[in-house]
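Input.
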Amino acid sequence: MLGKELRDLRLRKGQKLDGGLTAEAVSVELGFSRSKLSRVEAGEIPLPKLGDLEALLDFYDVTDPDERADMLRIQRDSLKSEPLTSYRGSLPSGMPRYLGLERESVRIRGYENNVVHGLLQDEAYTRALMGSAKVVEERTTDAVARGVEARMERKLLLDGVDREVHIILTENTLRTLIGSPEVMRAQYAEIVRLSARDNVEVQIIPETLLTYRAGFNFTVLEFDELDPVVQNDGYRSTTMWSKLSDVGQFQRQFDAMVKAAPGPSQTPQFLKDLEQKLWK
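Output.
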């Protein structure tokens, strides 16, 4: 996350200059080794010295106190080995960083056992889901509308044919009534539509299948040049794991469920049968 934010700042300043601005040029300008910033941006090495970060922020003309404070928090978090948890109070600054990583990913592997994964949600389903929490979570009508719009924009990730998306849902997520039977029928149709794409696979674990199921939802993001990370979004917090042993455990869980669940080709028929049973 730190590397991506620093790269975005460099590119932003480079847009103001003819010919752009390379990481090597910035390293030389600030007295770093020629490859230092490139490796930091790639997530290969940390940036432990606060003075180095402040020098970069000054060079990139970052003067806004809130933006600088946010970068300092990211830098501190990057030096920790435990999972990074952002609570609701700071989620507006934490969630965009996750979404930025999601946009950079080449492979997304998600598991949901509560509601339909956000990348698969139909607009009516999203609106009903967020609307049902409006009073409890003290959201305004405008906030709900912005949330729906943001989630629909996020689905544009599926348009990138170079990005592989593989989602596993439990049958329970599809049996839970959100909005109305009409909303559920539209949601089933959206899953079928998206799963027909070459780069999208959706599997469903039937309730009657005696097999392993992970205890809570998670998404694994994989990249070309960065190590993978795992994200879990709970009611009051979102947590990200980057330690290889932690990520490996989630990957093994996902692989086990992939092997056990019916294949993606069976998903449309499963949804058709479920619709006939529940939402006729």
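The two ends are 46 Å apart (CA to CA).
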